[in-house]
Design brief:
Layout: E1 7-12, E2 15-20, H1 31-44, E3 52-57, E4 64-66, H2 71-75, H3 79-98, E5 103-107, E6 110-112, H4 114-121, E7 124-128, E8 132-134, H5 148-156, H6 158-167, E9 171-172, H7 173-179, E10 184-186, H8 191-203, H9 207-220, H10 225-239, H11 243-254
Parallel strand pairs: 2-3, 3-5, 4-6, 5-7, 6-8, 7-10
Antiparallel strand pairs: 1-2, 8-9
């Protein structure tokens, strides 16, 4: 398998599906995969033909979204190389979180450690009912290092996040649904069709508005309400001079579907 084939790309009418494709290693992240993933995110960030991204894992062999870091590779690393790996994967997931388009995680199977941390960096998470997930790093005498200690408590609450991390506990998709980690839990065969359904609904909307809405939510949740309202006001202002806003108003008046170009 070549390095490029470790991340498959499929475009469907403005929706880009990224499939982690290392099935023999449960789609674990090694350095070549991290590098091609980062270069892909960088390349598509300002591609106007792409409006929504779905991230999932290869379903060949055992179903896995991603079982996290490639521990076989990690075992041969020096301490400095481990530090560089952790920075690389943390930076990648931050790039996903700050990506100027909505990102959907279709968690189709095992998602441990970095696999779950990638899903946490996505905007919307749906899972197959067979998925098993967890931040299991403390069982290896380390901690989640790619954002897990920060993103998980913001999603499921501090007490639940501590319990999951401290116990290195693996939970089912249904438990993740109950905790608010997942938006929906679906039968495996329905997962991608549902992800595409959600993505297509999103893709119909204004790209600039989507980017600004994502920015306002992500940045506003970290500050006080007055500061958050100021962030929202500034984000709204970005949409006012756009051609898309005029198109939206015109289409509404003419009782037709708008055609947005991200301008």
């Amino acid at each position: 398998m070549t390095e490029e084939s470790a991340l498959l790309k499929e475009s469907r009418d403005g929706v880009l599906i990224l499939t982690i494709n290392r099935p023999d290693a449960l789609n674990c992240f090694n350095m070549p995969l991290l590098e091609i993933f980062q270069s892909t995110i960088n390349a598509i960030a300002f591609d106007r033909t792409i409006k929504v991204v779905i991230i999932t894992g290869s379903t060949e062999g055992k179903n896995a979204f991603s079982a996290g870091a490639d521990l076989k590779e990690r075992a041969g690393m020096s301490q400095d190389e481990v530090r560089f790996y952790i920075k690389t994967i943390r930076d990648l997931f931050t790039s996903v979180e700050e990506f100027p388009k909505p990102v959907i995680a279709a968690v189709n199977g095992y998602a441990f450690g970095g696999g779950l941390e990638l899903a946490l960096a996505c905007d919307i998470r749906i899972a197959a009912t067979t998925a098993i997930v967890g931040l299991t790093e403390t069982s290896l005498a380390v901690i989640p290092g790619a954002g897990g200690t920060q993103r998980l408590p913001r999603i499921v609450g501090v007490a639940r996040a501590k319990e999951m991390i401290f116990r290195a506990r693996r939970i089912t998709a249904q438990e993740g649904l109950d905790y608010g980690l997942f938006l929906e839990a679906l039968e495996p065969g329905a997962l991608m069709s549902r992800a595409l359904e959600i993505a297509n609904e999103i893709a119909k909307n204004g790209p600039v508005a989507l980017a600004q809405a994502k920015y306002a939510v992500n940045k506003g949740i970290e500050v006080s309400l007055p500061m958050g309202l100021a962030i929202e006001s500034n984000a709204y202002a970005v949409t006012i001079p756009t051609k898309d806003r005029i198109e939206g108003l015109t289409a509404f008046r003419e009782k037709r579907k708008p055609v947005y170009n991200g301008e």
